[in-house]
Amino acid sequence: MSLVLLVKPGMDHTTGKTTVNINMPSSSMHVIFMDLIRNVVPESFVQAFYEHYKTEIVQVKMNIPRHYLDPVMAQNGTETRLMGNYVPGANMVGLIASSFTIGIMLNKAGLKAKATVKFIKCLSIALKIIFNWILWYLPIGLLFLVVEYVLDISDWTVIIKLIRLTGVIFLGLAIHSFLVLPLIFFVFTKQNPFLIFFQISKALFTSAILASSAATLPVTIQCCEANVKVNTKLCRLMLPMVSSINMNGMALYEVVAVLFIAQISDILLDVTQIITICLTCCISSFGAVGVPATGSATTILILTAVGLPAHNASLLLVFEWFLDHFTTIVNVLGDCFGVALINHLCQDEIVILDKSSREGMRSTRELELDLFCLEPEEEFIPSSSSGSILSM
Predict the structure, then answer these.
(1) Domain total for the chain?
(2) Per-residue pLDDT tens digits for 286-313
(3) Do 243 and 213 form a contact (C-beta atoms < 8 A)?
């Protein structure tokens, strides 16, 4: 935010245009926060895969009687209302909360949920194959999309502004990656934070190619377990969740992009409006989809929510496909730093739990659940022996 306000990449420094002020809806921040809470508990788990609830601030005409004495109300004839409905787009926050609840229920069911768990595993494998197909064909679609917008550009001075915008975003991502995250890690752990860059280099390289934190998740888990030495249980619990929740790179990109749209539209914002935009960007990036080329949809959502014109957001598509690779790197880097930090802070508790589990006597039910979690080819004890004495 400080960089984009100092550099002002969207301002035309040669013509000296005057900026105009805009009155943003004061309740826009509250509306987005209420939508976030409402989407945590979706009405339908299936509906959460393709729709989410969104509230819009609209101006509605009022039917004012002729004998109404208020001249101001009679002149305006409108009032502000909140209109909510379901719009296309996955409800990631609701999916995470619902999946967490279903996982707890399946864990409580134990061996009775064996068929359900096998179905979920097969479905997960099929979805991975479909996702790989999408990633292979995605560059072709993005190529034609970028070519279309480049050919439609009539004012090439906008390209200069976009180049300045790219430089501001790169500088902001670099400060966050090489200064903010390592400093937080060093303050709490007193360890060299730059070793993590080398230890997770494979995950960072993969995220730069795929531009998807969700597709990079298997490599991220492998690097954190093998190289960073994060506890396996902690790593496999946190990383799948934070890959969809912790979108720090996208949040940094969105706040710069929204302020850039305000500058290119010659709109002057006050301090309160700027803070509202920053908080809105943070909340909107929470639970965003970890797939490529989703920044433009989030930017339009934020612009609409805070009352800024969204018609200029199409300009960002020219460079967004390129910047998306670097914002994904920051997302994965933030996930790895967070998991390593939590592993360090909870190290004593993890050692105590591991020691007690090795030394204590384990019940027959715990052993059955462990065997149930094995892959099918690794099951060496038949299910009929669940009531007998288990031995290694």
Answers:
(1) 1
(2) 656 555 555 666 777 677 666 677 667 7
(3) yes
Q: Is residue 371 in a domain?
A: no
For the chain, what percent of residues have pLDDT higher than 70?
A: 72
Predicted pLDDT of residue 154:
67
In a domain, 140, yes or no: yes
Is residue 69 in a domain?
no
Residue 353, both tokens = 């739990």
The tokens for 227 are: 């190289």
Instruction: State how far the Cα of 308 lies from the Cα of 322, in Å rounded to an integer.
Output: 25
- State the CATH number of the domain containing residue 177: 1.10.3860.10
pTM: 0.66
pLDDT at 165 over 60: yes
Residue 118 covered by a domain? no
Q: What does the buried/exposed string (b/e) look like for 72-105 if buried means 16 or more CB atoms within 10 Å of the residue's CB?
A: eeeeeeeeeeeeeeeeebbbbbbbbbbeeeeeee
Question: Mean pLDDT throughout 229-241?
Answer: 86
φ, ψ (nearest 5 deg) of residue 227: -100, -45
* Number of separate helices (H) and strands (E) present in the chain: 17, 4
- Give yes or no for a contact between 327 and 173, defined as CB atoms under 8 angstroms apart: yes
| Nearest partner of 267 among 25, 10, 56, 26, judged by Cα | 10
Q: Provide the mean pLDDT of the chain.
A: 76
> What is the per-residue pLDDT across 212-221, written as a single tens digit (0 to 9) for each?
787 788 889 9
d(Cα 255, Cα 269) in Å, to the nearest integer?
13
State the residue range of the domain holding 260: 2-26+129-348
Please say whether the dihedral angle defined by the alpha carbons of residues 278, 243, 201 and 334, taken in this order, is positive or negative: positive
Distance between CA 98 and CA 87 in Å, rounded?
19
How confident is the model at residue 337, as a pLDDT? 94
- Integer Cα distance of 228 and 343 in angstroms: 10
User: 297: how many CB neighbours lie within 10 A of its CB?
Assistant: 14
The per-residue pLDDT for 340 is 93
